[in-house]
Automatic annotation (TrEMBL):
<feature type="binding site">
    <location>
        <position position="661"/>
    </location>
    <ligand>
        <name>ATP</name>
    </ligand>
</feature>
<dbReference type="InterPro" id="IPR018303">
    <property type="entry name" value="ATPase_P-typ_P_site"/>
</dbReference>
<feature type="transmembrane region" description="Helical">
    <location>
        <begin position="1030"/>
        <end position="1049"/>
    </location>
</feature>
<feature type="binding site">
    <location>
        <position position="390"/>
    </location>
    <ligand>
        <name>Mg(2+)</name>
    </ligand>
</feature>
<keyword id="KW-0067">ATP-binding</keyword>
<keyword id="KW-0472">Membrane</keyword>
<keyword id="KW-0479">Metal-binding</keyword>
<dbReference type="GO" id="GO:0005886">
    <property type="term" value="C:plasma membrane"/>
</dbReference>
<feature type="transmembrane region" description="Helical">
    <location>
        <begin position="998"/>
        <end position="1018"/>
    </location>
</feature>
<feature type="binding site">
    <location>
        <position position="803"/>
    </location>
    <ligand>
        <name>ATP</name>
    </ligand>
</feature>
<feature type="binding site">
    <location>
        <position position="804"/>
    </location>
    <ligand>
        <name>ATP</name>
    </ligand>
</feature>
<feature type="region of interest" description="Disordered">
    <location>
        <begin position="1051"/>
        <end position="1075"/>
    </location>
</feature>
<feature type="binding site">
    <location>
        <position position="483"/>
    </location>
    <ligand>
        <name>ATP</name>
    </ligand>
</feature>
<feature type="transmembrane region" description="Helical">
    <location>
        <begin position="857"/>
        <end position="878"/>
    </location>
</feature>
<keyword id="KW-1133">Transmembrane helix</keyword>
<dbReference type="GO" id="GO:0005548">
    <property type="term" value="F:phospholipid transporter activity"/>
</dbReference>
<feature type="binding site">
    <location>
        <position position="392"/>
    </location>
    <ligand>
        <name>ATP</name>
    </ligand>
</feature>
């Protein structure tokens, strides 16, 4: 394999049929790899990725600490079991995803393609195709690489492709080979083809290609119309040949497979902060207990060094405290259990499936179901404050119908009171087309030159592809619904577009076939906002036909059209006032000599590699001057079903809706009135249309003064974000009057500058409705970014077209609508569905439920883990701060992953305070999510306080009950606390639930049953045979006390839980028992034990450990068997106590 130096490719040189020449550039082969791992790299790479999460790294550090004998108070399996489980589940998921990527890669790489090799076509796998190869494609085949079209089975080297995999658009597009290569259909000619292409380096611009073909001492310009990109499908073309320019990972399709920006919810960010707080709290508890250990070892522990000497490594009491600190960090780490992160992901996945399965968001006409394309943003759907919506195709249907037109100063309108026009004179008309002004047909029949030129322009100036499936049955493949509607209108009025070649356009004008020579196409783009064609008619005249936005066309008119322009402008205002989409039409007669000079300039500019688009734009501008106005068209785009009702409902939920559209101001405003965003009873509708920065600033300042009712607003307040009340959402809510802001694109460009962006945001947020018209895709994203940057609010962007992708990606949540403009918006979105009205259900039902369930889940999860963990903290004061645990190690391991996992998941998945109908009927229920009322730092503090109070009661009630006999059976003390804890947290989740289902009952009571089953299985003679008779009473007392505390301070409507009051805690505390574990264990004194000599049997064992840090037994069964053997051998009670102490249980404190 040839080794190639690394270099930045500035331009690409590719020569046909010259493998040695192309090999020296080391271009990528056609093998693709979207998978991340292989069998050797999976384990290290996947583990490395997983430990990028702070939580996993945190638990790995804990595991390492537990492997250090001097500080470990828990066996390593208490951490490694849940950690390995999490890592294993994630690894299996990643491996499964990567396996399917491997299968997909293998399937694509092994596709067959016909490659011209040594004079014949040979089948080769796609991965073996190289740059410079000539390949053959057949109908309905995928294009293997980015290729330059050389020739095809169609006349003039035409071919048709479907680009759904690239941009989601299913309409066919035409591509054309250069005339000089269009006759290379013979294998021999193709083998002798040695042209060289010099073009741009690999990039991700799907709609742009710049290159030049050098062949036979000539050079020919290449653009995107000559290219077939990987991922396209050849349609309606028997075969074609192409030359590979980009292969594999350097194709435009693969260059666009970049990573999508990872979006995180506000709850995720809050949880990160809370975890840091908890970690700080954990450190504080460790420090307190470590100081207690140091003090205890200094004052009391040194008295026992005669028979319990320190380890050799333990040099002082301070060092003992240092070791105790790390031991308590290990023991108390469950305040942030790893199962929290697993549970959150499971809940989000479940909420996503609920969205996918919702039949009320299924659109039967298009067979489109709602889809959650991400699982990380569900609860954020319940907190949205700003919606940024496209208009065309999002609020409207994007099904265009030709309704009205203005020709030579006269309007032709639809009036359904009259009979429909009879188009029987035209055998090629569309039977579904309806028009009600018969005077227009009469004008055509009378051969009115202006009317005929009007429809001739519509039939010629476009990029539509015709498909005649049968005689007279025409189907138009249009890149936009607007173009299709205009060409179809011309068809019905007698100017039928029949056929197209790279050099001609054939029309059927009033039954007569007429062929025009196509000289140039000046294509549409977002900057030009117009399209022109230059044709030569059968009489030899050269004409330029142009259509576009009225403001653009009017600026380029000849002075002779000035009067007609004013008349047409009035008509356009009327059309736009009715919500119709308008275009202006104009033409120009070209002089033969001037056109020849211009064509030479165009040919030169089209072969330039650098700044080709700028030079071509300047030439287009040069020839599109002095136009003569013909008239204007008006197309209707109806509102989607339920749009007005959805917007009204979302407004009641305090969600602000901003419309960002490319339509003209009048059209946008009319749609605003149609969907009730604008109303006649509004106090004021501010229209900002200034052309300079000063004009825009003055208009925004006047609007601000009017809203606030102030006599003067200082310029400093306009520029700086320092107003004392404008940035207070409460103040915004106090404005009772309703205002609307409408701003157009050129004014918005000034308003988005740093000098004015703050006053723009202030005015917009004080208005009920905001409509931005004539905006570019980049301006849409800038508006969203402005709100994200300066407002603490969740934003949602919704659209259906490629021009909405930047806005969708910029917002916190992106929603794509599967509409008439392809699926580019859907592919870039987080959620997708077919109709705008489904947004109401997505937010008010699924979003609200997800937020409600996640908040309740987190509140309860933190509560139960504080209640579970802080028992160890209280116990530290009674075991000489020796880092002993209250619970058995298996209980610690299973508490979060077995005993309490399913009930809390059931609550997080199925709980609901009201049903979906009530949520939609009362939109005000959505407001708590916007204000973060259900889970915030204050509620977190209250939940943890309640958990601390519960842990206090759970420890001290059994402690008081077992104070006399706990030294004989400490295990009963531990099991009592554990059982009380399981019952209490189960009762608590029952009290927290709003909606009981069979699943909830099964999980809650099933988990309690599983706990008792495991507890029974771990005892040799059965639980009640070995535990004291007062066990049920103590458990009942503990449960009742903690439950009473909860009922005495019930959660409020906003789910604010109050913890037990301090005096209740102090009432239970026994101050006389605050002593070390040794004092607790030997309240009758040490004399009899020492003088009897019975402790000497295990002196070797005792001397090997520091005080209070004893070796661990494996489980309760071994501990119980050992105790029974000792009891049978020693009848003396004091000896019995000594033998129970010296073996020292591991997981239980020294309270035998």
């Amino acid at each position: 394999m040839t080794m190639c130096p690394l270099y930045v490719e500035k331009e690409r040189h590719v020569k046909a049929n010259a493998w040695d020449y192309n090999a020296k550039f080391c271009y990528a082969d056609n093998h693709i790899k979207t998978s991340k791992y292989n069998i050797f790299t999976f384990l290290p790479i996947n583990l490395f990725e997983q430990f990028q999460r702070v939580a996993n790294g945190y638990f790995l550090v804990l595991l390492i600490l537990q492997l250090i004998p001097e500080i470990s108070s828990l066996s390593w399996f208490t951490t490694i079991v849940p950690l390995v489980l999490v890592l294993l589940v994630t690894a299996v998921k990643d491996a499964t995803d990567d396996y399917f990527r491997h299968k997909s890669d293998q399937q694509v790489n092994n596709r067959q393609s016909q490659v011209l090799i040594r004079g014949s076509l040979q089948n080769e796998k796609w991965m073996n195709v190289r740059v410079g190869d000539i390949i053959k494609l057949e109908n309905n085949q995928f294009v293997a690489a980015d290729i330059l079209l050389l020739c095809s089975s169609e006349p003039y080297g035409l071919c048709y492709i479907e680009t759904a995999e690239l941009d989601g658009e299913t309409n066919l597009k035409v591509r054309q080979a250069l005339t000089v290569t269009s006759d290379l259909g013979d294998i021999t000619k193709l083998m002798n083809f040695d042209g060289e292409v010099i073009c741009e380096p690999p990039n991700n611009k799907l709609d742009k290609f710049t290159g030049t073909l050098y062949w036979r001492d000539n050079k020919y310009p290449l653009d995107n119309d000559n290219m077939l990109l990987r991922g396209c499908v050849l349609r309606n073309t028997e075969w074609c040949f192409g030359m590979v320019i980009f292969a594999g990972l350097q194709t435009k399709l693969m260059q666009n497979c970049g990573r999508t920006t990872f979006k995180r919810t506000s709850i995720d960010k809050l949880m990160n902060t809370l975890v840091l707080w908890i970690f700080a709290f954990l450190i504080c508890m460790g420090v307190v207990l470590a100081i207690g250990n140091t003090v205890w070892e200094s004052w009391i522990g040194r008295n026992f060094q005669v028979f319990l000497p320190w380890d050799e490594s333990q040099r002082s009491a301070v060092f003992s405290g240092f070791l105790a600190f790390w031991s308590y960090i290990i023991i108390l780490n469950t305040v942030v259990p790893i199962s929290l992160y697993v549970s959150v992901e499971v809940l989000r996945l479940g909420h996503s499936y609920f969205i996918n399965w919702d039949r009320k968001m299924y659109h039967s006409q298009t067979d489109t179901a709602a889809e959650a394309r991400t699982t990380t943003l569900n609860e954020e759907l319940g907190q949205v404050e700003f919606i940024f919506s496209d208009k065309t195709g999002t609020l409207t249907q994007n099904i265009m119908v030709f309704r009205k037109c203005s020709i030579d100063g006269r309007t032709y309108e639809v009036s359904q009171k009259t009979a429909c026009v009879d188009f029987s004179f035209n055998p090629l008309c569309d039977r579904r087309f309806r028009f009600y002004d018969s005077t227009l047909v009469e004008a055509i029949k009378l051969e009115d030159p202006a009317v005929q030129e009007f429809f001739r322009l519509l039939a010629l100036c476009h990029t539509v592809m015709p498909e005649e499936k049968s005689e007279g049955h025409l189907v138009y493949q249009a890149q936009s619904p607007d173009e299709g509607a205009l060409v179809n209108a011309a068809r019905n009025f007698g100017f039928v577009f029949r056929a197209r070649t790279p050099e001609t356009i054939t029309l059927c004008e009033m039954g007569q076939a007429v062929t025009y020579q196509l000289l140039a196409i000046l294509d549409f783009n977002n900057v030009r906002k117009r399209m022109s064609v230059i044709v030569r008619n059968p009489q030899g005249q050269i004409k330029l036909y142009s259509k576009g936005a009225d403001t653009v066309i009017f600026d380029r008119l000849d002075p002779s059209s000035e009067d007609l322009m004013y008349t047409t402008s009035e008509h356009l205002s009327e059309f736009a006032g009715e919500g119709l989409r308008t275009l202006a039409l104009a033409y120009k007669d070209l002089d033969e000599d001037d056109f020849e000079i211009w064509m030479k300039k165009l040919l030169f500019a089209s072969t330039v590699i650098e700044n080709r688009e700028d030079q071509l734009g300047a030439l287009y501008e040069e020839i599109e001057q002095g136009l003569k106005l013909l008239g204007a068209t008006a197309i209707e785009d109806k509102l989607q079903e339920g749009v007005a009702e959805t917007i009204a409902c979302l407004n009641l939920a305090d969600i602000k809706i901003w419309v960002l559209t490319g339509d003209k101001l009048e059209t946008a405003m009319n749609i605003g009135y149609s969907c009730n965003m604008l109303r006649d009873d509004m106090n004021e509708v501010f229209v900002v249309s200034g052309h300079t920065l000063q004009e825009v600033q003055q208009q925004l300042r006047s609007a601000k003064e009017h809203i606030l009712g102030l006599s003067r607003v200082g310029s400093a307040g306009d520029v700086e974000k320092t107003d004392m009340f404008l940035h207070d959402s409460v103040f915004e809510e106090t404005i009772i009057a309703e205002y609307a802001l409408v701003i157009n694109g050129h004014s918005l460009a000034h308003a988005l500058e740093p000098l004015l962006e703050h006053i723009l945001l202030d005015v917009a947020c004080l208005c009920k409705t905001v409509i931005c018209c004539r905006v570019t895709p980049m301006q849409k994203a800038q508006v969203v970014e402005l709100v994200k940057r300066h407002k603490r609010a969740i934003t949602l962007a919704i659209g259906d077209g490629a021009n909405d992708v930047s806005m969708i990606k910029t917002a916190h949540i992106g929603v794509g609508i599967s509409g008439q403009e392809g699926t580019q918006a859907v592919l870039a979105s987080d959620y997708s569905f077919a109709q705008f009205r489904y947004l109401q259900r997505l937010l008010l039902v699924h979003g609200r439920w997800s937020y409600f369930r996640m908040c309740n889940f987190l509140c309860y999860f933190f509560y139960k883990n504080f209640a579970f963990t802080l028992v160890h903290f209280w116990y530290g004061f009674f075991c000489g701060f020796s880092a002993q645990t209250v619970y058995d190690q298996w209980f610690i391991t299973l508490f979060n992953i077995v005993y309490t996992s399913l009930p809390v998941l059931a609550m997080g998945l199925f709980d609901q305070d009201v049903d979906d109908r009530t949520s939609l009927r009362y939109p005000g229920l959505y407001k708590p999510g916007q204000q973060n009322l259900l889970f915030n730092k204050r509620l977190f503090f209250l939940c943890t306080l309640q958990g601390m109070g519960t842990s206090f009661l759970l420890f001290f009630i059994p402690y008081g009950a077992f104070s006399v006999m706990v030294k004989e059976d400490q295990q009963a003390f531990a099991v009592t606390i554990a059982t009380s804890l399981v019952i209490v947290v189960s009762v608590q989740i029952g009290l927290d639930k709003h909606y009981w289902t069979a699943v909830n009952h099964l999980f809650i009571w099933g988990s309690v049953t599983v706990y008792f089953a495991i507890l029974f299985a771990m005892q040799s003679n059965g639980m009640f045979g070995i535990l004291p008779s007062n066990f049920p009473f103590v458990v009942l007392l503990s449960c009742c006390s903690t439950t009473f505390t909860t009922l005495a301070f019930p959660p409020t409507a906003s789910r604010k839980r109050e913890g037990p009051q301090g005096q209740n805690l102090r009432r239970v505390r026994r101050t006389s028992s605050r002593r070390s574990a040794y004092a607790f264990s030997h309240q009758q004194g040490y004399g009899e034990l020492i003088t009897s000599g019975k402790n000497m049997r295990a002196s070797a064992v005792s001397s090997a450990h520091s005080p209070g840090r004893t070796p661990h037994s494996s489980n309760w069964i071994e501990n119980m068997l050992k105790r029974k053997n000792e009891v049978s051998c020693i009848s003396d009670e004091s000896g019995d106590r000594a033998k129970n102490r010296l073996p020292s249980s591991s997981t239980e404190p020294e309270l035998h």
